[in-house]
Structures are given as structure tokens and as C-alpha cells.
Amino acid sequence: MEKIKMVDLHSQYLKIKKDIDTAIQDVLDSTAFIQGQQVRDFERSLAAYCNIPHAITCGSGTDALQVALMALDLDPGDEVILPAFTYAAAAEVIAVLNLRPVFIDVDAETFNLDVNQVEEHITVKTRAVMPVHLFGQCADMEPLMNIAAMHDLFVIEDAAQALGAPYTFSNGSTAGAGSMGRIGCTSFFPSKNLGCFGDGGALLTRDASLATKLKMIANHGQREKYYHDLVGVNSRLDTLQAAILNVKLSHLDAYVRRRREVAAYYDETFSGLDQLVTPHRSGRAGHVYNQYTIRVERQHRDALRTFLQDRGVPSTIYYPLPLHLQNAYREPGCPEGTLPVAESLSKTVLSLPIHTEISEEQLDHIANTVKAFFD
Length: 375
Description:
This protein has 375 residues and is an alpha/beta fold. 38% of the residues lie in helices and 15% in strands. The chain has helices spanning 9-15, 17-30, 37-49, 61-71, 89-96, 141-151, 208-218, 239-249, 252-270, 298-310, 340-348, 360-374; strands at residues 54-58, 79-83, 100-104, 126-129, 154-158, 166-168, 174-176, 183-187, 201-205, 222-224, 227-228, 276-277, 292-296, 349-352. The protein has a 7-stranded mixed beta sheet with strand order 1-9-8-5-4-2-3, with helices on both faces. Strands 12-13-14 form a 3-stranded antiparallel beta sheet. A two-stranded antiparallel sheet has the order 6-7. Helix 3 packs parallel to helix 8 and helix 4 crosses helix 7 (208-218). The longest helix is centred in the last third of the chain and has 19 residues, at 252-270.
């Protein structure tokens, strides 16, 4: 059996090597390494895939979040509500722009922000809410969008882990992660379901004038070269990465299907284990499984991780410390104990290998090793 990896990017590359290599060679032959035709082609393809009029590429998922906030003309000290249980990028860009992150607790089943807690955290300074579609499943967007509309708040979706995940509204209509809020942000970090061979990101919006502004901010505030109408940043998806993403986008649905197959295998195999909890499926939000994250009682979690590692099974803790307890974001008004679900999850979650190239032999070994720990 080959060595098990959390993500096997090499095997994935080998399956589409001819197309990837051709796409890269086309860029090398053109020498249009910045803002080449492949960037524009990918933006159009991504917008079509997400069923949204405008996709603007940028240098990373973190950049996408920052550019989004910059485009909304927020003032220093304005507040942005976000979940405490997520990666630091969301809080980081808020703080970098001298805004104030306001952390709320998350739902114990989906790990996404608890919509029921949003209104109680809204103040006269609140301008935006940033749901994070964690591990590949959309946050509960319909009630969140209703709250945002009532309080005149911007919704900025962090869809970095959930590109392609569908959300169904009560009227039966559907929309994809990143296409429901004022701005959607995503990442093409290599381990994402749609990953490039470096850093990359994109912004999604239905507003044509906002799309123009986002594009300008990501390119030094320029509408025309050397004429700077806005304060911007330098955040561009390079042409090589766009060419790679153009190829991989055509495989994204197949990648998602395989991840769902792996998740279903885990679900079935672990169904009789009372000592762990498999990922919850929201009735409205389809899951694309950027991660397969189980919950284990805190007294067993670290021991299980060591047991797996000793038997050739990698695992990862996403995330070992919630944001409100990180030194960079601590505030006196949000001490330990304030957000109990996020704090509990940080001590009980464990993510198992899930990727497109995982073999049945590897899956059997992973599942049997988990079961053996609890025997």
C-alpha cells in the first residue's frame, strides 16, 4: 500500500498531466506571465461555474477577503461579525484594516456560525457579517441574509473551503457557496478542492460596478494603467496559475463526487462507533468535503491521533485554538468560557485523510485503524 497522505496532489496531477503540461507550456510560449489571456478565460469559466456574472481573480484567498472589505468603504473601528471557529485569515484581514472582529459561537453540529446569535452581537458600529462555509458545507444563509437585510449589513462569504457547495432556500431555489452575499471570496490554495500550484484566490459578485471596483483595488487601484483612482493593493493571479485552474475546473465536479464517496464510506464504517461523531449534513447545505472532520471525546482525541500516526495514518486538527483565544485577537470582553462550542470543538475535532486519489485499500486501513483504537 502506498503511503497515505492528507492530500495527494502528485497523484492527482499525474492523472491530468498531459493537459496541465500543455497549459503551462502555452503560457511559457506566450511569456504573458501577468494578466495573460488565460486569466481572463478562467475568470469567465469560474463565473459560469458559480452561476454569477462577475469573478475577479487575485493573489490568494486572504487577499480576496481583504479586497472585499476595502471595496465596502468601511471606517476604522467598524465591526464585522464572524465565527470564532475558523482559520485566522478572516480575522486577520479585519484587524489589518483597523476594523474590529466580533466573534460569535458556532453551531455544534455544522461548525458554522450560529445564526441565532448574530442579532445579539449587532451594535451601531456593525457593518458586515462574514460567514465561513467551514470544511465544505455552507452556513445557514437564508436566515443570515434576512438578518443582514433588516440591519443593513454587508454579507461577505468566505467560501475558501466550499466552492461548488449548493445551498437550498425555503422556496426551492439553489445557489452556490460564494454567490449569495454581497461578495463571495474563495481560495485556490493547493489543498482546496479546486487548487492551483501556488497561491491564488477570487472574488464573486452580482454587482457590475462593485466588480469594477474590486478589480481596480486588486490592481493598485487602477482602472487604466498608471492612473490610480483608488488606494489599492498588488494582488493578481498569475497566468500560469490561471492556466492550471482552467484545466482543473473542468474536473471539479468529479473531484467533489469522489470526496463525497469517501465521506460516505467513512460514515457507513463509523456508524456503529458511539465514541465518535461523523460530520453532520444540513438539510439545506450540500457538502463538498474539503475536510472530513470527526468529533472525539477530548480525553481520547490526542491519543487517537498518536495511534493513527504510529500506524501510518495522518490526521490534522482544524483548529486547535479558536480565534477569540488567539493572542493576536484576545479582548477583555471575550475571555475563555465565552464561546463554549468553539472552545469544545478545538479540543475534540480531528480531520481524517480525504482526497480524490485515495484508494480503497487506504480507506480500509484508515477506517480499520480508527475502529481498532476503540476496540
